[in-house]
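Figure S7 source data.
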Amino acid sequence: MRKLAAGNWKMNGSVEDLDEVTALIAAHPAPGCEMLLCPPATLLSRMAERAAGSSLMVGGQDCHAKTSGAHTGDVSAQMLKDAGATHVILGHSERRADHGESDISVRAKTIAAQAAGLTVIVCIGETEAQRNAGDTLAVIGRQLEGSLPTSLTTAPDGLVIAYEPVWAIGTGRTPTLQEVGEVHGFIRATLTKRYGEAANGLRLLYGGSVKASNAAAIFAVPHVNGALVGGASLKAADFGPIVLALAVS
Ligand code: PEP
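Tokens for the predicted phosphoenolpyruvate complex:
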């Protein structure tokens, strides 16, 4: 299985920041794992142009479930593909919180994006209150059940799950390695029940305050097949060491 280091630029970045992309590619011409950056939609095609011919892939941060039509402000999966995307992040906790995205809408978007030929990174994760109440695995189970297609219609590498505890995103706090292992083991077992043996080929990413100093330890946890990185993906000097740690893990 090819491990995946994915960066989520969120609502950050302008044309001049594309120099970070050039620097990342120059520093990691053959990274030894898959390397992906997901910029805001405004930068997608220009980032794809910078990445052309390199091993860096680019992706979107959301898409609409429909292919086209009267949906002001939205972008379809086909449009992301047309702009040069190979991947899309769906169901990020910030979209679930800011835009009221439900598991049902994440599933509809996932099906649409896969139909457009994009690899989908579906995000799930518990809030701090849910963890403190001992509900983490129940929440993760419900999100998996509701957000994913009922059958695996693509090759396993077309669907990626990112476990991102909401309380760890952008806070500098992370679960213990044991907690990461418990949730990733649970996700793998749940996916195997649902999809059978093919679930062994699905990549499971950890996301939430990953940085150079904690990446190697997180990547050594069983069933962690990569990372979804927010803040530390904005600068090549921060993201590069995470990519390297994954490549050698
Ligand atoms: C994210 O937004 O997906 C994320 C993991 O952010 P950060 O790495 O900044 O915690």
